Request: fold
Amino acid sequence: MADLNYSKHIRKTYGGDDPREVPLYTIPRASRYLKIPQRTIRDWVMGWKYQTKGGLAPVIKLPKPNVPILSFMNLVEAHVLGGMRRLENVSFPKVRKGLSFLEQQFPSPHPLADQLFETDGVNLFIRKLDHLINISQNGQVEMAEVVSGYLRRIDRNISAGVIRLYPFLKKDPSIDEPKRVMIDPLISFGRPVLVGTGVPTDVIAERFYAGDTFDDLARDYEITPTQVEEAVRYEGDARKAA
Reply:
């Protein structure tokens, strides 16, 4: 299938709906998959309520604002936001300021997923026409040494944009983690699967905890014992993070 036909393909396959925009992930499930605390994700998608200040609006817009269920695109946004906070220590006020600037200058339903962010650990940048625009400083154009390893864990398509996410494998992630688990809305209803297999990680983990050995599972699913171990480790760490 040609790259440019991807967007048409997913809409035809799903009766005209884009599966990336369908509410699929409860907050507990998103927390498990991304290894980000439930309270943090809830604040990002539902907003902050304070008795004295009245609260702050959400930074991730759900398909149904009053229903706390994330779409695949929301999951990607939470992954990007988690990377900014956990890996690169960008302050949340600067993230919010940058998103406000984007909303005014480059409107998008999913700015955290649609834009190619870069950061120097202090400010946020987006790249436009070979320039880095500092969205934390109201659009100042400048150059900087940037690190954006979490963005390399997202696959994009020319016609459709974001199509696949490789979540971090550990609760405390590192930039160079291997891509061994992926989330694709076209595979296994958007559940995490082992890369190159389509086998859901939760199925492997459930059988392992029920008593099957690594060798048993490797033989049944025609994968390696190492892949079985990765699935079990990912699911185990995900449960602890939630």
About this structure: The mean pLDDT is 79.
